[in-house]
Specification:
single chain; mainly beta; 1 helix; 16 strands
Length: 202
Amino acid sequence: MKRMIAGMLCICLLLCNLVMIPRMRVQAQSVQLTSKSITMAKGQDIVVGVLNSKENATWSVSGENIKIKDTSESGYCYIKAKKTGTATLKCTVDQKVLKCTVKILPGAAFIGNFSDDQGEVNLNIYKSGKKYVAFYSQFRLAQMDWLTGTLKKGILTLKGSDPAGKPITVTVAKNGKKRIFTFQKTTWEYFHQGDTIELKKR
């Protein structure tokens, strides 16, 4: 009797798992934006994307604080912050209307567009919810998109993938008007652990 009860319980647990798996897959693949809320600086350009959809998206904004710059890249919308305040970016796709709340600040220590004196290294940082998001590019050498991280004790730590697809960790620190970009953990042959780059706001 005990063996029969134990067997029936195992079968019930197996059936429950089989029923839940499709639901988990549907939830994981639901259509959504890369950000539901964004904090950016006046004059800054950023990109918002739509995930898990192959349909063409239609983008629009409310108010005059932000403007749409480009939507030619499938599934992505490039916006520019024109005025301080708040705005809403709307995406219509798959018969749904997805919204992203945008807050524009006059300036912030770790939000904005940064570059070196030669203009060869560019770092674009904004906030998505409570997380910081960064895009890094180095002329004719490298590009790293969607680095994410948090600010702690005045140091912004960002993690993501290097150009070879391997994990990388970098930090950004404030030194007066300069921002010190440091490669903390890297295995890519063209980046060297401990190297720093001085950046300034554009």
